[in-house]
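Dear colleagues,

For the upcoming journal club I promised to circulate an example of a predicted protein-ligand complex. I picked one with pyridoxal-5'-phosphate because it came up in last month's discussion. The inputs are reproduced below in full, followed by the predicted structure.
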Amino acid sequence: MLQTPYYLIDKSKLLQNMEKIAIVREKSGAKALLALKCFATWSVFDFMRDYMDGTTSSSLNEVRLGHERFGKETHAYSVAYADYEIDEVVSHADKIIFNSIGQLQRFENQSSAITRGLRLNPGVSSSSFDLADPARPFSRLGEWDQKQVEPVMDMITGFMIHNNCENRDFALFDRMLGDIEEKFAPLLKKAEWVSLGGGIHFTGDDYPVDQFAERLKRFSGKYGVQVYLEPGEASITKSTTLETTVLDTLYNGKNLVVVDSSIEAHMLDLLIYRENAKVHPNQGPHRAMVCGKSCLAGDIFGEFDFPQEVKVGDRISFQDAAGYTMVKKNWFNGVKMPAIAIRELDGSLRTVREFHYTDYEQSLS
Ligand SMILES: *Cc1c(COP(=O)(O)O)cnc(C)c1O
């Protein structure tokens, strides 16, 4: 049996998201590109490829991975490209979306053979977290002044607008798209394609998928544009767990449990956004604080309720360990890196990657 810790991707759960994405594509005519910055575990790309149109990226490494491991349509985007990487970026992409007019002009010649676009920033967003708010004051993410964009329209054929963030509220999405239309209508009319970015939680329970698809279709028809979506979290949400084993228990005013993992090393996003991990069912009379094994005092997954008293050797499974989690894993404290396993549709378990001392050693020099 595979040693913990490991990330476990459950294909039957992934399939539920894929099927919703397929419905939205079919009903709206929009294309869906996986955002690799959220999830880049390429062992399941063969599976996801049938339900999505390709990938989008935020760096040279990502655009190359998308091209080589996923295939289909490959969009390149980055906040800023360096001179030494632009040719390689272009060689892997069907479309390149520049973050600024400055970058578009700087790389005009090198990018002339592929479709080009520009990121627009409408100045409104659904994010309540300053850290993740593309429309935060003085944001560097995209151009906002229509007058500056009009003169470069002959160099581009479309736009990317990413201003949703974990947005579960269709009415809010609808309203913000209305804001975008109001602000940028003359530009949208000249475009051939518009990517509405990610951050829309349309694979979540109870999301009004039909209304969403209808809204996208209406937008597409009004401006005569191919709409793209760039779902990251929505593609893989609830598909993956982090499997751990309890190594020790202590008592210090609360029941403490130490597992063979670390929130800082293996679920860093939760620490950054000050959220607790999730366990299911999180019900029962035995409350315990589950802690990581790194030296960081605040390496804590959260406090949970268990049906039985937690003992050394018990397994604890943390939910929702795919998005912004596997891509951020790191070697802090030299904690054993979680392996990666896939539960196939027939229920069988397949280990696709294990990490060893040499991976740790080679991560530095
Ligand atoms: C982060 C990002 C995405 C994916 O966002 P999710 O919230 O994971 O859906 C898509 N497009 C762009 C431009 C992004 O920066």
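Two points we might discuss: Residues 35, 37-38, 56, 77, 162, 197-199, 230-234 surround pyridoxal-5'-phosphate (CB under 6 Å). The two ends are 33 Å apart (CA to CA).

See you all on Thursday,
B. R.
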